[in-house]
Specification:
alpha/beta; 3-stranded parallel beta sheet; 21 helices; 11 strands; globular; binds iron/sulfur cluster
Length: 522
């Protein structure tokens, strides 16, 4: 029972006898549960090879997808531009989900509006919603740009954003010259990374497509960087830091690192930082455009190559030593600026860290899942440390990505046990963790279910989760870390090694029996 003098958080509270009795009552009266033995029997069956074969034959059902939907990515992209309000044309519930998803991950308020289409809009189309929605959003929240994406509902009925926005302006709801870039983001294809790519192209198109006259590649001497769907705030900062150390003028095209990390000083900032409209307009004048996560930026690549006439360098995500080397050498080649001693020293520190830790990581098996570029970069770091990636799940990958991943695995002796599962979900991963147990699982918070289930079978079957990815709801502030560059590799190696040591401690806690590995004396 809760009392004013002793307010318990949920975990101890739900262990109180009256709560236990209430829960049992609910189960007995309303849940029509199967007997506990039957539940255990089915659980055991779901851990078998036989079940795995059936599981992998699944066609029309996704269970616990390792991805989110397109407009979620579009919202993140829009948040990276100065004084920009993300606006989703469609259902209100979807937008509540996007806001709460980001809110739980970043522990920040997320500004994003919806024009709340309901049944009548689904029948007659959502133009009226857009008339009112754009007018109200502009009047209430005073943005300098509104970036529109769509939910499934608007896409299913075929609402035409271009026509609706033009009509909204013609009808005088918002001024003709007010920027309203848009992207159709149907969630029945692609994922959050496709949505990011679509929205980015929509914003670039809106500011540069018809104003290319007078633009000269290289005339502003800057380099553009396009992050793609990126949720590690440290990754935006590390690019800026590395470029500052190289004395390279860099434009980060979509930079939400300020608005997603505002200080608690009594002032609410709906907008903070972000790429300015002037920077977008100037972007075609850059020397080149580097795509930080190239596998998820196909549309962006085409736009930048065809409209801005930029030669987009063929680079991988700069994760680990090799790919950060290649990234920095390319920047140096494009700008003529040498790689400074400070970055060479940082690289040396990473090599030192890897040498110190590789003995703990060598031969350890890691299953992992996430977005295409992140997964590939993570595999690269594992291979560089002599760790073995085994089950590699990437729901939103392409055939070309699978080939590139298989090539990467084939190039290392530590990649021989690696198998790639494109289009798979976390229920597939669960089967794999039971039938061919890795030492650890790397991914977002949803891997916690797999850890719980494997532990339920018995402590020797447990696959601990290392939380790197998106979303991370059940731990705090990990999103402020870095995964790219030498700095990012140092943080990733630190996280992985300490997970191995934590597990070792947990396995050797027996006093006077298994505590021989404490690495301490007193
Ligand atoms: S998948 Fe479609 S319906 Fe579901 S949240 Fe995303 S946009 Fe909304």
């Amino acid at each position: 029972m809760q009392t004013v003098d002793e307010i318990k958080p949920c975990y101890p509270l739900f262990r109180d006898d009256d709560y236990k009795a209430s829960l049992k009552n609910k189960q007995d009266l309303f849940e029509e549960r199967h007997p506990a033995e039957k539940v255990q029997e089915v659980f055991k069956w779901t851990t078998s090879k036989e079940y795995q074969e059936l599981n992998f034959k699944r066609e029309a059902l996704t269970v616990d997808p390792a991805k989110a939907c397109q407009p979620l990515g579009a919202v993140l992209c829009a948040l990276g531009f100065e004084k920009t309000l993300p606006y989703v044309h469609g259902s209100q519930g979807c937008v509540a989900y996007f806001r709460s998803y980001f809110n739980r991950h970043f522990k920040e308020p997320i500004s994003c509006v919806s024009d709340s289409m309901t049944e009548d809009a689904a029948v007659f189309g959502g133009q009226k919603n857009m008339f009112d929605g754009l007018e109200n959003a502009k009047a209430m929240y005073k943005p300098e740009m509104i970036a529109v994406s769509t939910t499934c509902m608007a896409e299913v009925i075929g609402d035409d954003l271009n026509a609706f926005i033009t009509n909204t302006k013609k009808a005088g709801h918002i001024p003709e010259d007010f920027p309203v870039p848009f992207a159709h983001t149907p969630s029945f294809v692609g994922s959050h990374v496709t949505g990011w790519d679509n929205m980015f192209e929509g914003i670039m198109r809106s500011f540069t497509l018809n104003t290319m006259e007078g633009k000269v590649v290289g005339s502003n001497q800057k380099l553009n960087f396009v992050p793609g769907f990126e949720t590690y705030l440290g990754n935006f900062r590390v690019i800026k830091r590395m470029m500052a150390e190289m004395d390279v003028e860099a434009t980060l095209l979509s930079d939400p690192s300020e608005v997603l990390d505002t200080p608690a000083d009594g002032e609410f900032r709906m907008y903070s930082g972000g790429t300015t409209q002037a920077e977008i307009k100037d972007a075609p004048n850059a020397v080149s455009t580097i795509l930080i996560q190239p596998w998820q930026l196909e549309k962006t690549r085409k736009y930048v190559e065809n409209t801005w006439n930029h030669e987009v360098p063929k680079l991988n995500i700069p994760m680990g030593i090799d790919w950060t080397d290649e990234f920095l050498m390319k920047v140096s080649e494009l700008t003529g600026k040498p790689i400074p001693e400070s970055l060479a020293k940082e690289r040396g520190r990473l090599v030192d860290i890897m040498s110190d830790s590789h003995a703990w990581l060598h031969g350890k098996k890691f299953a992992l899942y996430g977005d295409p570029d992140f997964v590939m970069g993570m595999v690269k770091i594992l291979l560089e440390c002599g760790a073995e990636p085994t089950h590699i799940v990437c729901n939103n990958s392409s055939k070309r990505w699978v080939k590139a991943m298989e090539k990467l695995l084939a190039e290392s002796p530590f990649g021989v046990n690696g198998k790639v599962y494109p289009g798979a979900d976390l229920w597939h991963m669960r089967s794999l963790c039971f039938t061919d147990k890795p030492d650890f699982l790397i991914g977002n918070s949803y891997g916690k279910f797999i850890q719980r289930d494997t532990l339920h079978k018995g402590p020797e079957f447990e696959v601990p989760l290392i939380r790197i990815g998106f979303p991370l709801f059940d731990r705090h502030h990990l999103h402020r870390q870095t995964t790219i560059g030498y700095e990012g590799a140092m943080q990733v190696v630190t996280t992985l090694t300490n997970a191995v040591l934590e597990k070792l401690d947990a396995d050797t806690m027996g006093m006077g029996t298994t505590d021989y590995n404490f690495d301490l004396i007193r």
